[in-house]
TrEMBL record, chain A:
Coiled coil: none annotated. InterPro entries: MetI-like, MetI-like_sf. It is found in: Cell membrane. Belongs to the binding-protein-dependent transport system permease family. This is ABC transporter permease subunit. The keyword Acetylation does not apply. It comes from Nitratireductor arenosus. Keywords: Cell membrane, Membrane, Transmembrane, Transmembrane helix, Transport. The chain crosses the membrane at residues 9-29, 98-122, 134-157, 169-190, 226-252, 272-298. It is a multi-pass membrane protein. Its main location: membrane. GO terms for cellular component: plasma membrane. GO terms for molecular function: dipeptide transmembrane transporter activity. Signal peptide: none annotated.
Length: 305, 280, 512
């Protein structure tokens, strides 16, 4: 087991290095920060001074070598906008995003999984059609639209919840619900379809034949087995969630990493973009590893190869 | 094909058929030129709610006919999402098959690539590409198509590995039968059902990504309308004129719902184990 | 079977019950006594006002760090803040006298040393690159005595007030201690009416009144709280939900609602931002636009009034066929907008040899200016009606700026430039060798040069109104409109008076 985890961790290194390299060149392709950091009517002299100060005047390969050498030591450089280390800017905003992500996951699993189970169990009933329609609806409405709608209804008309910002649990409700909407829909759908697959399998018939209660059969045998692929799906959704996080944090002025990175992308603040992308990649890789380990624990048939 | 005769399936087929018709021949359905503006008649409510005659679903922020724009918008919207899914599905399936079947070094390499691609935020990829080559239907198809392959590859690869070492495949190999064919026959239904479910999900995700890109100012070039673009533009006027964003939203939702339903029906139809019983 | 059904459903219901318990008990946060709360588009990066020329940052930073002078809206006279006044010793020498008995909040004295030090920072292009355009005219500043500073210029410079009002005075010892701009930007110390209390980036910035403030402190404001809300519509909604006293840049779509809500009003400030479509006639950028008749035709083809009334509901102003505003030196009262006349446009196109029109690329940003994409689509629609078929290219704001400053925004590009309030700063952007000029007209260049070193107001008026006439007749740009900035303001705020460049000061403001 330990061996397996170690090996998997080792495997992530080339992927992460690859991401660092790709990200470096992609950000460089996207434009020169000088145009964005200085006023449009800045003098040529000021522009040159800016480029020299941040090493943007050097040949690309030289910049890359310097960057890569430092990145290997965990230093992604200083933000062009803030003058602070990109990593510490990331750390500052991490708490807010983790809060949001956990709340989202809580809602998504809490609503999506039961909905999927119900939908599968009462397959083709009115309830099933209702769940599936709602799921399709949830998937079909863009995150930003949900967000704006929620604000209009719950903040402006009903005045129940704040329009955004961070604070207590109150501030978390709207953004988390918004971000969860697509995930709920996806989980419900995946849960439904894997449930259906599992229900057809022999061991379920056996369990039924043994005279076990219907509830026990469904929960212990079917749902539990169906949960394994769902776990993988959740872990895989990280990349997709990233896009949602950016939009949600923007709409609800949530001071998290998503807003940091979209501002950095727009401003061509290379070091910050690189740090955030690397960090998200790391999280992604680790959460997938965790999902694999968990499914191994839940399903003894998975072998550590 | 009795699956296709249920009312849900029929409705879904009609919706998708309409969307496809709009994609192929929007001129047949649309009452107006989608680009025809009237700054004096902007943000009008639907005609059945007291709006001006001739604009059944009202007008948008430039006084253009919303119904006509939804009809013309089907083309770019569906083209982007379907083409992107076809691309990612074919790349993913091929890569997954090769990796799963060959194993070893190929497999390891593919796994690393998958991790890399999945962990890389699509949005950054799109901004970088859009910044360099500009935002067009083709750009979006290529970027979204290329970025979506890993999930398909994972599904196929896992299925191939699960049967690769089974006895009858070994046996088939031993008697000289092309193992790939055996594998394909065996995993076919399984992979197909997972892939179809996933592809329909991807289809809706692509439509949403296009909408989100419009929201972030990276949508495709006007005057080509897209549903996502219409929502993101109309969203700014939601408290003045809800029609401009709600109707394109309904277009997206009903199309996605219909595609999903057809996906499910197809899945059931293709899966021989499901016919004849209701799955309980 | 039935048992399970019930179990499932009750499970679902308990989830929704749980959710409903969170909702409903929580009132939205309301504005507090003595606290001025402001929502703006983004969080400042630095609270050192000379860090950038972005007004949202300067507005915040200048509550703490003060300048020598301030140029109020609708005036080009410099009002003294930390200075008592200035006089011209000769064309290139300025004597500035400073207020006495002022201290920075860390106890350092405000004196000539601090001012000279701040000028040194201001003119150091490495530290203050954003102000290179202004600092280039300054040679050096010297201390005469504790409360007098002599400023030596490199050239005769008409827009001196603009330069003097942009220099913010920082305490020298503290500046060294925190290591310059980066350290100072996150923990500023100044002479101003407020002190930084707490700053959580991208979330909330809190300032407390400076009890020892030297001047007239704003009445009733004990704290200022700023929160960044990036989405325009959400910012307006937050104001309507009662979370703020002031929301900047509210969208026109929300202005009627805000105005209709009791306790709120909409402040509409004519902006310095002038919107045009550049029509390149630069050598090497060949297109039909090199023919003046084509450029004129384009001006006739676009219904500017329609855009102002339709898209902006009147919240924009006509340009009177020129780049300078009515209030500016050089405004030419004899010029008016090209009337909307599609027939004339078609005739001019035919005369220029394009009876069937032509195809042309039209670039514009999405998300940089208010309703930018809509305006671009409207313009393209009108041009299409006379046969100028545009290939529209929407640009992400960052890419837009790159193309603009790289002279790639051609042959047609929708831009809104907002230079500081002086005709020289406005017009030199159209000099043929300017980095992002798309105009090539030697006659205009001569006038721009003449105006740039002329100190006499009447002569400047003459020079610039001639330049306006040339630009109009030659139709070097498609004249669109002057923008308007909209602020949503609560009734309890008095004296909030932003300038057309979105700069505002707390002096004179109060909270009921």
């Amino acid at each position: 087991m330990v061996d397996y985890v170690l090996r998997r961790l080792l495997y992530t290194i080339p992927s992460l290095l690859g991401i660092v390299v790709v990200c470096f060149f992609l950000t460089r392709l996207s434009g020169d920060p000088t145009d964005l950091f200085l006023p449009i009517d800045a003098s040529e002299e000021a522009r040159d001074a800016f480029r020299v100060q941040y090493g943007l005047d050097k040949p690309l390969m030289e910049q890359f070598v310097a960057f890569f050498y430092k990145a290997l030591q965990g230093d992604f450089g200083n933000s062009l906008r803030f003058g602070e280390p990109a990593i510490s800017l990331l750390a500052e905003r991490l708490g807010a995003t983790i809060q949001l992500a956990l709340a989202t996951l809580f809602i998504a699993v809490g609503v999506g999984i039961p909905a999927g189970i119900v939908s599968a169990y009462y397959r083709n009933s009115l309830l099933d059609v209702a769940v599936r329609s709602l799921a399709a609806f949830g998937q079909a409405v863009p995150t930003f639209y949900w967000g704006v709608l929620c604000i209009l209804i719950f903040s402006v008309w009903l005045k129940w919840l704040p329009t955004g910002g961070s604070g207590g649990l109150v501030h978390l409700i709207l953004p988390a619900t918004t971000l969860a909407s697509t995930l709920v829909a996806l989980l419900a759908r995946v849960m439904r379809s894997t449930m259906l697959d599992v229900m057809r399998q022999d061991f379920v018939r056996t369990a039924r034949a043994k005279g076990l209660g219907e509830f026990t059969v469904v929960m212990r045998h079917v749902a539990r087995n169906a949960f394994i692929p769902v776990l993988t799906v959740i872990a895989l959704q990280f990349g997709v969630l990233m896009g949602g996080v950016i939009v949600t944090e923007t709409v609800f002025s949530w001071p998290g990493v998503g807003r940091l990175v979209i501002q950095a992308i727009y401003a061509r603040d290379y070091p910050v973009v690189q740090a955030v992308v690397f960090f998200f990649a790391l999280i992604f890789v680790l959460s997938n590893l965790l999902a694999d380990i968990l499914s191994a624990v839940l399903d003894p048939r998975v072998r550590y190869k | 094909m009795r699956h296709l005769r249920s009312p849900v399936a029929v409705t879904s087929l009609i919706v998708v058929g309409l969307a496809l018709l709009a994609t192929l021949a929007p001129g047949l359905l649309a009452p107006h030129d989608p680009a025809e503006q009237s700054l004096l008649a902007r943000l009008a409510p639907p005609s059945f709610l007291g709006g001006p005659e001739g604009h059944f679903l009202g007008t948008d922020q430039l006084g253009r006919d919303i119904l006509s724009r939804i009809i013309y918008g089907a083309r770019a919207t569906l083209l982007i999402s379907i083409a992107a899914v076809v691309i990612s599905c074919s790349i993913g399936t091929t890569v997954g098959l090769v990796a799963g079947y060959n194993g070893g070094r190929t497999d390891a390499l593919v796994l690393r690539l998958i991790d890399m691609q999945l962990a890389f935020p699509v949005i950054l990829l799109v901004i970088a590409v859009v910044a360099v080559v500009g935002s067009s239907v083709l750009t979006l198809i290529v970027v979204l198509g290329v970025s979506g392959w890993p999930q398909f590859a994972r599904i196929v690869r896992a299925a191939v590995i699960s049967v690769r070492e089974m006895e009858y495949v070994e046996a088939a190999r031993a008697i000289g039968a092309p193992a790939m064919r055996v594998i394909f026959r065996h995993i076919g239904p399984n992979v197909l059902s997972a892939t179809i479910v996933f592809a329909t999900y991807e289809l809706s995700r692509m439509i949403l990504i296009e909408a989100t890109l419009s929201f972030l100012g990276l949508g495709i070039q006007p005057p080509t309308p897209t549903w996502g673009g219409m929502i993101s533009e109309g969203q700014k006027y939601i408290s003045l004129a809800w029609a401009a964003s709600v109707f394109p939203g309904i277009a997206i939702a009903s199309t996605i719902l219909a595609i999903n339903m057809i996906g499910d029906v197809l899945r059931d139809a293709l899966d021989p184990r499901l016919s004849g019983e209701d799955g309980r | 079977m039935t048992i399970i059904r019930r179990t499932f459903l009750s499970g679902l219901m308990s989830v929704s019950l749980l959710a409903s318990q969170f909702v409903g008990v929580v009132p939205a946060s309301a504005t507090e006594e003595g606290v001025l709360s402001i929502a703006q588009g983004f969080d400042p990066v630095s609270l050192w006002p000379n860090y950038s020329t972005t007004q949202e940052q300067i507005n915040v930073g200048s509550l703490i760090v003060e300048p020598l002078f301030w140029v109020p809206p609708d005036s080009d006279e410099a009002q003294p803040i930390l200075a008592e006044g200035y006089e011209l010793v000769d064309d290139k020498t300025v004597r500035i006298s400073l207020r006495k008995n002022i201290q920075f909040t860390n106890g350092e004295p405000f004196n000539a040393d601090a001012v000279v030090h701040s000028f040194d920072i201001f003119t150091d292009i490495k530290t203050t690159p954003a102000y290179g355009r202004y600092s280039v005219v300054i040679d050096r500043a010297e201390k005469v005595d504790d409360h007098t500073v002599m400023l030596y210029l490199n050239q005769r410079y008409p827009a001196l007030n603009l330069v003097l009002s942009q220099v913010f005075i920082v305490p020298p010892a503290y500046w060294q201690e925190v290591g310059g701009p980066d350290g100072f930007g996150s923990k500023p110390i100044g002479t101003g009416p407020f002190k930084l209390a707490d700053w959580v980036r991208d979330s909330e910035l809190v300032m407390e009144a400076n009890p020892d403030y030297w001047g007239q402190a704003p009445e009733g404001i004990e704290r200022v709280v700023l929160r960044p809300i990036p989405d325009d519509m959400v910012r307006a909604s937050a104001l309507m939900a009662g979370e703020f006293d002031i929301a900047t840049n509210v969208p026109i779509a929300a202005s009627a609602q805000i105005g209709g809500q009791s306790g709120l009003e909409v402040l509409s400030i004519p902006s310095y931002r002038i919107f045009t479509v550049s029509l390149s006639n630069l050598p090497g950028q060949e297109s039909p636009l090199h023919d003046v008749r084509v450029r004129q035709a384009i001006n006739y083809a676009v219904d500017k009034e329609g855009i102002i009334k339709g898209l902006f509901q009147g919240q924009a102003r006509s340009l009177n066929g020129q780049l300078l505003r009515k209030e500016q030196v050089g405004f030419n009262p004899d010029i008016s907008d090209y009337p909307y006349d599609p027939e004339k446009a078609k005739a001019l196109l035919a005369e220029a040899g394009y009876p069937d029109g032509f195809d042309i690329t039209f670039k514009f940003p999405t998300g940089r200016y208010a309703q930018d994409r809509e305006v671009a689509e409207a313009v393209a629609g009108m041009l299409g009606a006379v046969g100028v078929r545009t290939q529209m290219v929407s640009l992400e704001p960052g890419e837009f700026l790159r193309q603009l400053s790289g002279r790639e925004l051609q042959p047609m590009g929708y831009v809104g430039l907002a230079p500081a309030d002086d005709p020289d700063l406005q017009l030199s952007q159209y000099r043929s060798d300017w980095r992002y000029s798309y105009v090539n007209n030697p006659e205009l260049d001569t006038l721009i040069d003449a105006g740039g070193s002329e100190l006499d107001r009447a002569k400047r008026q003459e020079i610039y109104s001639k330049a306006m006439r040339i630009m109009h007749d030659q139709a070097h740009v498609l004249f669109l409109y002057q923008g308007v900035d909209l602020y949503g303001v609560s009734e309890r705020v008095d004296g909030f008076a932003p300038r057309g460049d979105q700069r505002w000061v707390i002096y004179g403001m109060s909270l009921n």
